[in-house]
Design brief:
heterodimer; A: about 350 residues; B: 7-stranded mixed β-sheet; 6-stranded parallel β-sheet; globular
Chain lengths: ~350, ~375
Amino acid sequence: MRIYVTGATGFVGSAVVAEALRRRHEVVAVVRPGSRAELSQQFPDHGNRITEARIDLRSMEGLAESLDGVDSVVHLAAAKTGDFYTQFAGTVVATENLLAAMKQANVAQLVAMSTFSVYNYLAMKPGTLVDEQSPIESDPKLRDEYAQTKLLQERLYQRFESAGGGRVVILRPGMIYGPDNLWHALLGAELGPRFLRIGSKATLPLTYVENCAEAIIDAAEALADRPGELTGEIINIVDDNLPTQAQYADLVAARIEIPPTISVPWPVMNAATTLLKKVNESLAGGRAKFPGIAVPDRLHARFKPLRYTNAKAKRLLGWSPRFPLEEAIARSSGIEATHAGATGGPVSDPAGTPS
Amino acid sequence: MFSSIQGRAAARSLPLRAAVVGSGAISKEHLSYLAGRSDAGEDVAERIRLVAVCDLSAAAATYGASQFGADTAYTDITAMLAQERLDVVHILTPPSTHLPLAELSLEAGAHVICEKPITGSTADLETLLAVADRCDRSIMESHNYRFNDGYLAIQDLVTSGRLGQVSDIEIRIALPITDPAGRFGDPNLPSPIHHMPAGVLHDFTTHFSYLLLGLTSDVKFHRISAAWSNHSTNPMFRFDDLDALLIGDGPEGPVHARLRFDSRSGPDTFSVTVRGTNGWAQTDFFQPFMWMVVPRPGGAQLSPIINHVANGFGLVRDGVANFGRKLLQHTPYHGLHRMLDHTYQALAAGRPLPVSRDDMLQTSRLVDRLLAEEVRL
């Protein structure tokens, strides 16, 4: 299969390219014009099966042409930093352009990367099982720019499919961890030189980057083989045997240096931010803007104790996470800025950010 | 205001039907005002109806329309102008598109409010003004910082004579425009502003010019030298630094002005300092404060001490106020909201607009003069 991968030099993208090449697929890797990445050098043994497309998805220029001969698109590119309008352009407009180009180029198969961020965590009771039927955020304005733009992006996918644009399967991964992203936002937040650890008992919805990459390529293959079964499906991606925050933090702390921390129990943070929200609503009409962890809607999305399942991914994709937690952490912490990629080793990308 | 010769627009029946073209970051500010969500204007909903949002991206137009309560989203301005009977069109697209989009809007019978720089040259501005005349409609460039609290306070100090005869003005902007993670420095999809004669600095030179002219309406600047530099050597940038000196004659003596753009120093700054024969004052738009050294009731002996104490208390007050502003999102764009409110009030009443055509022409001519080869250092 000829697979078109957007965001190919990113944290997840480079693992997806490696996995696609490992399975003997051809890859068209979308790389932004200003990127210094040289994929052919990154994958020297697969030079004849990887092509670079130097394109910025915020523009239609060259987009449809670059899709020529492609069987399946894996859309990973998204803006994860910047203000709302920057993320809107990098995520929503980029996706709008990609879908228009796919239509123009007659490419009908899309594996679309979404995120766990789209769920409405404030509406869930503690201990709820989060699955694909869980409610979607109904008031995106209360969430961060990333969640807002990913919600808009999902709507574009669904419109594309319902308008007959193509066959789409949407993957919603939890927190993707790996090299350079072991100590992440589900553990807490930076507080000056220290790290504020929020909670310890919540189960973490994690997926290791190489496991996630396998699920993505599984989805591309399954969508090609069984379009009737996969088209229109939304599938959550998390690994097996998910750890609690404390278990995970202990494993990571044994492998890498972590910042000095201050710990706050989840119930304390929850009560404090709920009170702050009420004060804001009664005194300022809800207009006061606070840092993310002081907003209940955002706090719950990161730290609320919930349960997770990957049953649907296993059933529909035949996916089984290959690397268990301890091995994944060992693979992630044992390498620095090298890319074993298609040889089966772990991947690294300093620009990696959580999904 | 440095002049007010703007042609009067005939009073329009309310609510005025408005549309926004372009859904970039600045659209949030225009749409917030039009949707009645800014601090400016108490009865916006009765005076203005947001009819449409137009953008080449359907997703962007639809999002803007849905978030701010517009009736319809368009991806084609011609279709929008044909289908909606618009009184006012806000043009918020890249500068190179202003001229054709403004012409279309004026010819469709709408007044135009356009983001700065309205055109890349005075010649293009004159073309646009001629179209407005032919269509009997008004066009206005956004001079938003002229309506900020701090600038209005400084203008009051100048016009009241409290600073004495103005002799020296410095306007300084510091912003890291070459940062590759920023909107101007992004190498992947370079901003269209790079194509303007001063590149990215064209945006800021327009601010410099109208702010300076607003404080020196009776001064003729006859000596100008401007050092335009690209210290970053990034080939995407024409310039990332401006150091301009202007010397002119006013009715009460010579006036010196320095316009300084710097992309290397921090933190982000947009300050205005005015010095006169009696004292001086300084404000900053990004972190608003007012520092004022003027004669005090204690006479020459006590004035320095009273100034220090008064400014010390003032800084504490401004610090607390800025914390509140940050929480409540009272941004430097409050001047834009105020300018829009004055504009809509004027359109409804058939009064002169708050930014006159002379304001726009003088601003554009000063930008042209700063860019002229013969003044470059």
